[in-house]
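4.2 Preliminary Data

To establish feasibility before requesting continued support, the project team ran the inverse folding procedure on a target of 323 residues. The structure was first converted into the token representation described in Section 3, and no sequence information of any kind was made available to the design step. The complete token record follows.
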């Protein structure tokens, strides 16, 4: 029987803070892409020859939005990097689970690689690297969400209160959702950076939504509230993303039936495209966390069943010896 480790609330709050900081970085990065401002500076790691923290960033506010957004993205990325280092240090001081320590190291390495991708994108002026930079950001963001999930105190008490039946189908369903959402995110990146993949993105979005609905139904067949909440949150975020996508379509291409004419790069269009991209990273993270919760419950359920069987065998042996 495995030893139960009580997660530190301090570490849990640090993990949550990193997700928030990373979300700010994603927003700045998405705005930079929406405004086509990725090459606002032609140098890296400096900005117009200034070191990261010495560049007069706030002077660009409302004067040069391209530089304001790009340098804001760089600054936010720097803060996330420093926070990731802090997370590793704290993990090795107060976290007993080796695999959680390794996860903290993995997040730090992911953030470092992400920064290098962004730097090479500028130095080489390569839009392909810009696309890879955005895709990899969503993967690192999901790792950060994973850290929040495994340091949440509910991670240890997830198996309490309810008997769990076989989770085989739900396991497969949750993984299918992640694969579809990630593929959908890839097509979205193709649209933003290469201008292709629109119809595939739309069709796959419908398939992904159906898969998420099926996953929710399967989760509700279980009696565990942790599973149900996870599935419902994923569904609600997915439905919101569909609405963002539809609105983005209208703002980009117009809606003649209602007399609406699209205005290229309007504030509404840029804001909604950005929100749609950031929300895509959020839904991927939530889907990954949902998989973790399903597999966590399956694991503790198996442990409980094994412990129960061993206890029953011991009781029978003891009773037999007494007779």
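Position-by-position output of the design step:
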């Amino acid at each position: 029987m495995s030893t139960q480790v009580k997660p530190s609330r301090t570490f849990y709050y640090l993990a949550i803070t990193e997700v928030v900081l990373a979300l700010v970085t994603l927003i700045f990065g998405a705005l930079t892409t929406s405004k086509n401002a990725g090459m606002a500076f032609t140098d890296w790691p400096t900005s117009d020859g200034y070191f990261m923290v010495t560049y007069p960033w706030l002077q660009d506010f409302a004067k040069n939005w391209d530089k304001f957004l790009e340098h804001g993205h760089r600054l936010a990325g720097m803060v996330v990097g420093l926070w990731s280092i802090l997370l590793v240090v704290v993990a090795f001081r107060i976290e007993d689970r080796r695999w959680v320590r390794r996860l903290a190291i993995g997040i730090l390495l992911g953030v470092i690689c992400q920064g290098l991708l962004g730097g090479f994108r500028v130095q080489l002026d390569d839009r392909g690297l810009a696309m890879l930079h955005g895709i990899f950001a969503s993967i690192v963001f999901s790792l950060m969400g994973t850290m929040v999930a495994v340091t949440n105190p509910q991670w240890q008490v997830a198996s309490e209160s309810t008997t769990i039946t076989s989770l085989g189908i739900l396991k497969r369903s949750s993984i299918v959702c992640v694969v579809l959402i990630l593929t959908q995110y890839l097509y979205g990146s193709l649209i933003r950076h290469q201008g292709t993949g629109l119809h595939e993105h739309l069709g796959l979005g419908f398939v992904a939504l159906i898969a998420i609905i099926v996953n929710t139904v399967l989760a509700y067949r279980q009696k565990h509230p942790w599973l149900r909440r996870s599935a419902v949150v994923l569904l609600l975020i997915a439905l919101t993303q569909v609405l963002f996508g539809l609105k983005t379509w209208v703002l980009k291409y117009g809606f003649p039936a209602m007399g609406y004419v699209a205005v290229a790069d309007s504030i509404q269009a840029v804001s909604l495209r950005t929100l749609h991209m950031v929300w895509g990273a959020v839904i991927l993270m939530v889907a990954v966390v949902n998989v973790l919760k399903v597999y966590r419950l399956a694991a503790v359920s198996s442990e409980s069943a094994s412990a129960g069987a061993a206890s029953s065998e011991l009781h029978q042996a003891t009773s037999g010896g007494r007779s």
